[in-house]
Amino acid sequence: MDSSISGRGYVHPEVLVSTSWVAEHLGEKGILMIESNEDTLLYSTGHIPGAVHVDWTADLNDHIRRDYISRSGFESLMSALGASPDTTVIFYGDKNNWWACYAFWVFRLFGHRAAKVMDGGRLKWEKEQRPLTKEVPSMTPASYAGAKRDEGRIRAFRDNVMKHIERSLPLVDVRSPEEFRGERLHMPDYPNEGALRGGHIPGAKNVPWSKAVNADDGTFKSAEALAALYIAEQGLRREDDVITYCRIGERSSHTWFVLTYLLGFKNVRNYDGSWTEWGNLVNVPIEREVTAIVGREAKVRA
């Protein structure tokens, strides 16, 4: 366990490692660094020595169905990366580890348990002026036997969300306040990825994902600060059945990681269909906050 992480009060500090820990363990047998970015071209501009690239669009998603790769596809990916089920994979990436946590979540779907995230991601590594290389490592292919994809424990589908609403169970919308209120269909400076309507799922609490990280270096906030954000301010409880969502499931996987591993929530699922799906469904409930002419905010449910 990384001593610089263990003092922050996390329930599962073993899933995080610091940049210093990574620097000390680079090249060790049984450890595989994986870079996964929103910007899929970023890896080629320089990456941690020995790190391989996992492209969230090309490597993790089915190219026809809106779903993840099959079990055999995951086995082929891991085999090509030279990984075994015992290989410790350490994810890192841009955007304060959005996509690193997303890849971590997908790997968990396939039952790969030996996984960690490098706290602070590329931002912290670069700010500390640690080495980067453009050399792509040559991996010795392995034979990887994976588990059947686990759909129920950490992944939610739209029917699960409907039942959640009916039972008034907690949902966490991690998008920006403007998206949550229905003023925008996407983040500023990002394209619309298909949603036709704005708003949020009824009953959802809006906690933007970025509130969980320190702005200066992208590291996760302490357990005390996270508990204040999610438990004290929002009234969530560690025993709650919680569903997180965003626009396409990447930001919400970051919050899923925080709630599950750093705060120790027992039952958190990520709704990866998120607003791109929900905002297009026929006859589903949507709440939207609109500002009237007189300046008062009203919540409208459709």
Q: Look at the structure and give the CATH class of the largest domain.
A: Alpha Beta
**In CATH terms, what is the fold-level topology of the largest domain?**
Oxidized Rhodanese, domain 1
Strand order of the largest sheet: 1-5-4-2-3
How are helices and strands ordered from N to C? HEHEEHEHEHHEHEHEHEHEE
Rg (C-alpha, Å) = 19 Å
How does CATH name the architecture of the largest domain?
Answer: 3-Layer(aba) Sandwich
How would a textbook summarize the main sheet?
Answer: 5 strands, parallel
- Rough outline: globular
Beta-strand percentage range: 5-15%
The helicity comes to 25-40%
According to DSSP, the number of beta strands is 11
Q: How many helices?
A: 10
- Could you list the spans in which at least 5 consecutive residues all have pLDDT below 50? none
Tally of distinct domains? 2
Category from helices, strands and their pairing: alpha/beta
Mean pLDDT across every amino acid position: 93
Distance between the termini: 49 Å
The CATH homologous superfamily of the largest domain is termed Rhodanese-like domain
What does this protein structure show overall?
The chain is an alpha/beta fold. The chain has 2 domains: 3-127, 3-Layer(aba) Sandwich (Oxidized Rhodanese, domain 1), CATH 3.40.250; 158-301, 3-Layer(aba) Sandwich (Oxidized Rhodanese, domain 1), CATH 3.40.250. It is 27% helix and 14% strand. It contains 10 helices and 11 strands. It has helices at 3-6, 19-25, 71-80, 98-109, 121-127, 158-166, 177-181, 223-232, 250-262, 274-278; strands spanning 16-17, 31-35, 52-53, 88-92, 115-118, 171-173, 205-206, 241-245, 267-270, 287-291, 297-301. The strands form 3 sheets. It has a 5-stranded parallel beta sheet with strand order 1-5-4-2-3. Strands 7-6-8-9 form a 4-stranded parallel beta sheet, covered by helices on one side. Strands 10-11 form a two-stranded antiparallel sheet. The longest helix is centred in the C-terminal third of the chain and has 13 residues, at 250-262. The chain is globular and about 55 Å long. It starts with a helix and ends with a strand. The model has no long low-confidence stretch (mean pLDDT 93).
